């Protein structure tokens, strides 16, 4: 380790965000690495092409720009290597394809991101890979689900939309005892608030579309593996021919520099809004792991250093047929909140949650579930906008 790398390894989080993947000496003193686009890379002679020893060989295998981002991600993940993909979903699917084969059995947390579930129920099913969903709260009982052909366990913590927590180190220990590996979508907390590989996860997955980008204008995913699983991931990605673009890598690197400051703001504001929602008589439940009232709070408090700005709440509703009408009235009345998919940008967003996709765990009852992305706006303005939603629901009820 060089003197500079040693200094950086001991630095604080925000300092490392500013300087990881940062090497002006390699780019003529420019602070940010230039965008290097490439398809063809030239070799000095025929012999050098037979067993390439030079760092860059073809555009899909990386450029100085993409490698700078991979180095920064590896620094925070503590990973042996990282690949870049065109989206967060691509990161999940490539990670699964890299390690499973026909005849394998996969355990998948039932609160998983719905597009991941769709991939498992269609593409993996066609590949003769059996996916079994399990309750994230079942704890040690998950061991009863392992079979001799269980190859992989896939986790999210907290779960998409309804934020169930899973005991990651417990499940990882059980999985490894049975010879299975563990992958995890860690987009909500990022490696700043939950360093997945330190808790027994083998492969950490992120939609860096979210917090690392921070501005709702870049699509990219990352997959980072520990030393035992890095080579297989890298080979699978090379076979699939997927890669992140230099332009998008530059933008993610740029976003990383301010991510620590932004995430702290998202966290503070989201907790303030969640606590306010808990006081309202027209809210049945607030689904935020950092709240003491949340069932998975103890696990979150034990393992996580902070919280993301995304959470949900259950709006008190009447009959099931009325739930969607009430939820629609609430979100349609919002003005500061945009209605749109994704999250992690500077702007607040709201969506109605589909809770009918899960197969094992029961969805929260009591009314429609509304997911909020708390952006960087002033909390007072965010709350005032939510008041508009509650007023619209009250008017509808008469």
Keywords:
single chain, 398 residues, alpha/beta, seven-stranded mixed beta sheet, five-stranded mixed beta sheet, 13 helices, globular
Task: Write down the Rg.
Answer: 22 Å
List low-confidence stretches. Answer: none
Please summarize the sheet with the most strands.
7 strands, mixed
- Overall mean pLDDT score? 93
The structural class is: alpha/beta
Number of helices: 13
Taking strands numbered 1, 2, ... along the chain, how are they ordered across the largest sheet? 1-7-6-5-4-2-3
Order of helices and strands: HHHHEHEHEEHEHEEHHEHEHEEEH
Number of strands: 12
The rounded distance between the terminal residues' Cα atoms is: 68 Å
Strand content: 5-15%
Strand-helix topology:
Layout: H1 3-9, H2 13-19, H3 46-50, H4 64-77, E1 81-85, H5 88-99, E2 105-109, H6 114-126, E3 130-134, E4 150-156, H7 168-177, E5 181-185, H8 190-193, E6 203-207, E7 221-225, H9 227-240, H10 246-278, E8 283-287, H11 297-303, E9 310-315, H12 320-332, E10 338-339, E11 349-352, E12 369-373, H13 379-397
Parallel strand pairs: 2-3, 2-4, 4-5, 5-6, 10-11
Antiparallel strand pairs: 1-7, 6-7, 8-9, 9-12, 11-12
Describe this structure in words.
This protein is globular. The chain is 40% helix and 15% strand. The longest helix is centred in the middle third of the chain and has 33 residues, at 246-278. The strands form two sheets. A seven-stranded mixed beta sheet has the order 1-7-6-5-4-2-3, sandwiched between helices. The mean pLDDT is 93. It has helices at residues 3-9, 13-19, 46-50, 64-77, 88-99, 114-126, 168-177, 190-193, 227-240, 246-278, 297-303, 320-332, 379-397; strands at 81-85, 105-109, 130-134, 150-156, 181-185, 203-207, 221-225, 283-287, 310-315, 338-339, 349-352, 369-373. It contains 13 helices and twelve strands. It has 398 residues and is an alpha/beta fold. Helix 8 (190-193) links the parallel strand 5 (181-185) and strand 6.
